[in-house]
Amino acid sequence: MPFVTEAARHVIAAGGKRFRPLLVILASALGTPRSAEDLTRAALVMELTHVASLYHDDVMDEADMRRGAPSANSVWDNSVAILVGDYLFARASDIVADLGVDFVRLQARTFSRLVQGQIAETLGPAEDQDAVGAYLAVVADKTGSLIASSAMFGGMVAGLPADQIEALAGFGEELGVVFQLSDDIIDITSESTGKTPGTDLREGVATLPTLMLADYDDAESRDLLRLVEGDLTDDATLAETLRRLREHEVIEKARAEVARRAEVARAHLAVLPEGMAREALSELCDTVVTRSV
Ligand code: FPP
Ligand code: MG
Ligand code: MG
């Protein structure tokens, strides 16, 4: 149906970093991909799954911008965005079937973790749960899982041995967490991400900098935390909160934590074969730490 195709192309055509397909390709270069067609399929499945999740995420977050363009829910409406997200996931499922049952199973398990991460984020931590621990578990599920699967897909297409696939899983999961933690900081600090700054804050979604703010007990920090936890639907209040957060030391503290975790990701690479592909994966750790979009 031409309308579905147009709506499905909307977010893909808007741009994006293509981080997941890049990871599939780099991981596959640790060995020799069994065919160019299967490598393309593996990369495509990961990007389509990611884009499908963005259509749904923008509905849940009531986001009006994505990749520098109006989000699908704002161009059309929530129903179209949800159904087109479903359609893209169906297309990804069709393609993954050609790769074999191991790929299908990993894709299904990844989908299950994405959904569970989103639900846990929506529910928020339980009374007796540590807020930072709950947040990191959400991040691992909603972002780490698909990035881990991207690294694994690449390794699987290249027929790497089980211990190397396991190392890629550990690397991808940690890199995915670092990627999302950077994203959370950028949501506060950058005006040029292609998304509306402060979306997480406005929606009351906990992120690393706001959680770390609770560790400070000076008057300015306590006052800022009250603002962060209050109603931020008013544009002027949101802008003021963003301005004060950007000037707070907590942003640097959060950045330091991101850099520390990038080294944890890098450590997983030690068991992989030395060479250009491993170097490139190592460089990805630096890119994720320093990224500003
Ligand atoms: C973005 O987080 C959201 C995700 C990484 C996962 C979304 C997953 C779902 C909606 C489950 C359904 C999945 C499929 C495949 C249909 P964010 O809101 O913090 O990031 P943002 O700043 O990019 O919006
Ligand atoms: Mg979002
Ligand atoms: Mg979200």
Automatic annotation (TrEMBL):
Keywords: Magnesium, Metal-binding, Transferase. The keyword Metal-binding applies. CDD domains: Trans_IPPS_HT (cd00685). GO terms for molecular function: metal ion binding; prenyltransferase activity. InterPro entries: Isoprenoid_synthase_dom_sf, Polyprenyl_synt, Polyprenyl_synt_CS. GO terms for biological process: isoprenoid biosynthetic process. PROSITE patterns: POLYPRENYL_SYNTHASE_2. It comes from the Bacteria. Its cofactor is Mg(2+). The keyword Membrane does not apply. Belongs to the FPP/GGPP synthase family. This is Polyprenyl synthetase family protein.
